[in-house]
Amino acid sequence: MTPPPSDHTRQAARYSSVAILLHWLLALVIVSMFGVGVYMTDLPFSPLRLKLYNWHKWAGVTFLALTVLRLLWRVTHRPPALPRAISQAMPGWQMQAYHATHHVMYVLFFAVPLMGWAYSSAAGFPIVWFGQIPLPDLLPANKELAELIKPVHKWLALTLMALAGLHVAAAIKHQLIDRDGLLGRMLPGGR
After folding, report:
1. Tens of pLDDT along 36-53?
2. Which is the most buried residue in 7, 23, 33, 96, by most CB within 10 A?
3. Which domains occur in the chain, in start order?
């Protein structure tokens, strides 16, 4: 087992403050959005259900906007490379899983809210972001199409949450089992 990197290596390999902020904001929004999404679907038709659906849609649009910001930041600010000791200690399959998980999560960061927006449009329920900014419909109202899109949105969201769970489990493994300091690269506070 390779010894953990020094404090100097950990500090040099950290993500930028902006990348860390966007990472944790997206994590907070996605967990909240998923929780509200699961809870609201079983509610009977009521003012609470309508309110939660609006909050869910607002969170989805906010998530999409934050994802665009995060992607722009990532394209213009290269993320730190994995410390050499960590990348050499990882088996090939783990490195492939690391890259594949991140790529698929980025695709889903766009696909899930866009499918939700498409569903809302096709169902005939426009999105008025925070009750103030009307957003264009992505599709014309079409109840049959809405019924086709709804399960796609659901399964994409479930897939995203499963990958997020895998991402968290891998971070915990690196922190508690490998003790390689990998998690510290994304923790706020300069750890």
Report:
1. 999 999 999 999 999 999
2. 33
3. 7-185 (1.20.950.20)
